[in-house]
Amino acid sequence: MSYVKTLFNRNFLEYASYVIKDRAIPDIGDGLKPVQRRILHSLFEVDDGKFHKVANIVGHCMKYHPHGDASIYSALVVLANKDLFIDKQGNFGNPITGDEASAARYIECRILPFAKKVLYSPQVTEYVDSYDGRNREPVVFPSKIPVLLIQGAEGIAVGMSTKILPHNFEEVLRAVVSELKGEPFQLFPDFPNGGLVDVSDYQDGLGKVLIRAKLDTKDPKRIIIKEIPFGTTTESLIASIEAAARKGRVKISQINDYTSEAVEIEIKLARGVYTKEVVDSLFAYTDCEYSVSVNLLVIKDGLPTQMTVPEVIRYHARQLVAVLEAELKVEEADLKEKIHARTLERIFIEERIYKRIEEMKTRETVISAVIEGFKPFKKEIPREVTEEDVERLLKIPIRRISLYDIEKARKELAELQGRLKEVRYHLKNLVAYAIGFIEGVLKDTAGRFPRRTKVGRFEKVDVREVAARDLDLRYDAKTGYLGYDLKGGDSLFAVNQYDRVLIIRGDGTYRVTDVPEKMFVGKGLMYCGIADKEELADCHFSIVYQDTVTKHLYIKRCTIEQFILEKDYDLLPEGAKPLAFTTREDQEIVLNYKPKPRLKILEENFRVSDFLVKSVKAGGVRLSTKEVKSLKLRKAKKKAEDA
C-alpha cells in the first residue's frame, strides 16, 4: 500500500509539473506556451518568403509537439488571429463573430519579418533535444519585447491557472522605454474588439476589471451595439440578449446582426419601452457587461511565479539589454573574424605570398612558407595566423586572384572596421542602444496598433436594483405557506427573484431568506417584509409576550440589522409566548385585567413609543404582573402636551 501511495504521489506530481510547465502556463521570457513556441520555430525553419499550407506547418510542428495535429492547428489559428507574428491567407475564422477557420489544407500562413526581428536569434538561443531526440527546439525565444503583455494568455493547469489580459502594443513598448530611462509608467488592458473597461481594481494585473460593450443610444427606440466586450463574440452576445428577453428581463421586439468588418448589432425595443429604460438591463442581465478576474501567473526560471505588470516590464527591460548585448558580442566576434580573414586575403594576394608555395613539395612546408610570408605584416594582422587560416587562403581559385580588386577590398575592409567600431560603441552604451531599438520598432509599426478599448470608470449594474418587482408574494394563513408561486392566500407585496425577505413566525423565531417560490413558514405569521438593511435599520419591531411560567407580560422593542442568510434566530427568550406584534409607533397596548378582590384598576394603557428600542438580543421590559383577561393594540390617543 505504501508503495502504491508513493508511486501515485510521484506520478501525480510529475504530471502536474508537466501540465504547468509544458502545456498551460506561458514562459515570461517570450510570453509563449510550448505549442506556440514550436509553431513559430517551425515557421522559422521553413521560411522562404512564400506562404505555406497550414496543414504542412502542422505536420512539420509534430516533430516537436507530441500532442496531435488538432491542438497544433487550433493554437496556430488563435496565434495567427492575433496579427502579430504570422501573416495569413485564407479563411482563418473571425474572433469577433465566432466563425470557425477553414480546414488546415485550405489556408496558408508564413512568418512575418517582424517576428524574426524581435524573436529569432539562433546564435543566442538555447536549444534542447525534441521529445524523440531527432531534432532540436528552443527552450525559450530571446524575445526583445514583452509578448506576454501584448498578446495576453489564458490557461488552466493542475491546481493553478493564469489569466493575463492583452495590452496595447505601443503602450507596452513605451513602458519598456520608460523603465530603461528610469521614468514612471502605467499600463492598462487593451482588447482587439474594443469596448469599454473600468480598471479601478486592476491592481497591476492581479485584481479584476469591468468590461462593457459600446452602445449607441441616440435613438430612443433602438440600441446599436458598436463594440463587444473582450471574451465574447457577436453570436454569444446575441444569445445572452435573447435569453434575457425570453425571461422578460429585457423588453425587446427584434434583434438583427449586421456585423461585417465592424460590429453592428441592432436591438429594436418593444412598444412603450424606451432606450434609457433598457440600457441598465442590458448591462445587468446580458454579456454586455461582466467582470473579469485576472491572475498574472507565468513560468519564471522554471517555476510558476505570480507577478505584476510593472515587474514584467522591468524583467523584459533587463532581458532586452541582455539579449542585445549577447547579439552585439556575437556580431563583434564575427566582424573580428571577417576583418582578420579579409586582411590575410589582401596581404596574401597583394604581396604575392602565394608565389612562395610554388617550389614547396609537402603540405607542412607550404603552410610554413605562407606563415613565414605574413611575418613582415604582423602589425596589420589582428591575431596570429593559424593553419586553418592558411588552408582557407590556399582554397582561393586562381581566377579570383587574377581578378582581385585591391581598392574594392580595402573599401569592404574599411566598412567592416567601421561597423566593428559601431558595435563596440553600442556595447559601451547598451541602455541607449536598447532604447533606440524599441524606438525603431515603434517607428516601423507606427499606426498598426491603435488603442481600441476606452479606459473609463463606471459602476457595475446591480441586477437587484434593475430587476422589476413583478412577482406577487402571497401568504396562505390556512396552510402556512409563503411564496410567489402560490395560487391562493393573501397578497402581501410585489417582489423580484433577487429580493430577500425577513420572516417573523408566529412562534417568535425569525429568518432572512431569498424570496421563496413556496415555503412553509407556519400558521400565524407575524411579519414579512423586504430585508433591505437600510430600511430595517429604521424599522422598529414591537412585540408583547408572556412568560409561560410566571404569566407576567413583557414588551420588547428592537431592530434587526445583522443576520446570516437562511439561519433561524429567536426573537424572544426561552419560554415566552407572543401575544401581540406591531411595527407602528402610534400604537398603544390596552390590558384588561381579571377582576379580583382589592383590584381597583381593571384596565391599563401603555404607549409603544414610551419604551426604548434596544438590540435584538436584549430582554423585554415587564408591563404587568397581574392576570390579564384580554389584550389589544389600538391607535394611541394624543397626549395632552401634543394636543
From TrEMBL:
Q: Which SUPFAM superfamilies match?
A: Type II DNA topoisomerase
One MF term in the entry's GO annotations: DNA topoisomerase type II (double strand cut, ATP-hydrolyzing) activity
Q: Which InterPro entries match?
A: Topo_IIA-like_dom_sf (IPR013760), Topo_IIA_A/C_ab (IPR013758), Topo_IIA_A_a_sf (IPR013757), Topo_IIA_dom_A (IPR002205), Type_II_DNA_Topoisomerases (IPR050220)
> Which Pfam families does the annotation name?
DNA_topoisoIV
Query: Any idea which residues are catalytic in this one?
Result: Y106 (o-(5'-phospho-dna)-tyrosine intermediate)
Task: Look up the signal peptide feature and give its range.
Answer: none
Specify the superkingdom: Bacteria
Task: Print the keywords alphabetically.
Answer: DNA-binding, Isomerase, Topoisomerase
Q: Does the keyword Aminoacyl-tRNA synthetase apply?
A: no
- Claim: Isomerase is one of the keywords in the record: yes
Quickly give the catalysed reaction.
ATP-dependent breakage, passage and rejoining of double-stranded DNA
Task: Report domain Topo IIA-type catalytic positions.
Answer: 25-471
> What GO CC terms are in its UniProt record?
cytoplasm; DNA topoisomerase type II (double strand cut, ATP-hydrolyzing) complex
For this protein, the Enzyme Commission number is 5.99.1.3
GO BP annotation list:
DNA topological change
Which PANTHER family does the record cross-reference, listed alphabetically? DNA GYRASE SUBUNIT A, CHLOROPLASTIC_MITOCHONDRIAL (PTHR43493:SF5), DNA GYRASE/TOPOISOMERASE SUBUNIT A (PTHR43493)
Family membership: Belongs to the type II topoisomerase GyrA/ParC subunit family.
Task: Tell me the NCBIfam families matching this sequence.
Answer: PRK09631.1
* Protein name listed in UniProt: DNA topoisomerase (ATP-hydrolyzing)
Biological source species: Sediminispirochaeta smaragdinae (strain DSM 11293 / JCM 15392 / SEBR 4228) (Spirochaeta smaragdinae)
- Upper taxonomic classification of the species? Bacteria, Pseudomonadati, Spirochaetota, Spirochaetia, Spirochaetales
